[in-house]
Amino acid sequence: PDSPCLQAQELSPPSFQEEAVATVLIEPSSITPYRQLDIRKTNGGTRLQTEWLVEWSNHDEPPATWEPAEQIQRRFPVFAP
């Protein structure tokens, strides 16, 4: 189910680059992905899920969040990491 906001979550275990990651609601109309800083695989239940550490165009706080790659590609089809 698509909602007007993506929910970004901090996932463990944290790495050095994840220290600035926090839970935030991102409204696609007001902010867009600027660049991909890192990539990781997480256990998404029955399969591995690819997540990107995304720096956002309006990076007040937090400057970057871990996002499911599939959701970013669906919501921002012109974004090329």
Provide tags for this entry.
single chain; mainly beta; 3-stranded antiparallel β-sheet; two-stranded antiparallel ribbon; 1 helix
Q: What is the topology?
A:
Blueprint (H helix, E strand, L loop, with lengths): L5 E3 L15 E3 L6 E11 L4 E9 L7 E5 H7 L6
Antiparallel strand pairs: 1-2, 3-4, 4-5
Task: Please describe what this structure looks like.
The structure is a single chain. The longest helix is centred in the last third of the chain and has 7 residues, at 69-75. With 81 residues, the chain is mainly beta. The strands form two sheets. It has a three-stranded antiparallel β-sheet. A two-stranded antiparallel ribbon has the order 1-2. The protein has one domain (6-75). It is globular and about 35 Å long. The chain has one helix and five strands.
Tell the overall outline: globular
Distance between the termini: 24 Å
Let me know the largest β-sheet.
3 strands, antiparallel
Gyration radius, in Å: 12 Å
Helix amount = under 10%
Can you count the helices?
Answer: 1
- Tally of individual domains: 1
Count of distinct strands: 5
Mean pLDDT: 73
Poorly predicted sequence stretches spanning 5 or more consecutive residues: 9-24
Strand order of the largest sheet: 3-4-5
Strand content: 35-45%
Structural class: mainly beta
Q: Helix and strand succession?
A: EEEEEH
InterPro entries: Chromo-like_dom_sf (IPR016197), Chromo/chromo_shadow_dom (IPR000953)
Domain Chromo: 31-81
Protein name: Chromo domain-containing protein
Short summary of the structure?
The chain is mainly beta. It has one helix and five strands, in the order βββββα.
